[in-house]
Design a protein that fits this description.
Layout: E1 7-10, E2 17-20, H1 32-43
Antiparallel strand pairs: 1-2
Length: about 70
């Protein structure tokens, strides 16, 4: 079997093409700079995971208490 070319992915920060292989030190990022900028965005709460509000409890059920 012949050697296949590595998959090309886009850097999630800047969109540059990145070869998905062991030699790509910062994958999926293109550089340490993009990797650091993404980590900083997480640390600053710039990314959020969408979630639905929990359902309201009926009046006849009381919430659990912390003792």
């Amino acid at each position: 079997m012949g050697k296949t070319s590595p998959r090309i992915v886009l850097c999630p920060k800047c969109g540059a093409a990145v070869r998905w292989e062991a030699e790509s030190r910062f994958r999926p990022f293109c550089s340490a700079r993009c990797k650091g900028m993404d980590l900083g965005a997480w640390a600053n709460d710039e990314y959020r995971v969408a979630a639905e509000a929990p359902p309201e409890l009926p009046d006849h059920i009381s919430p659990p208490y912390d003792e």
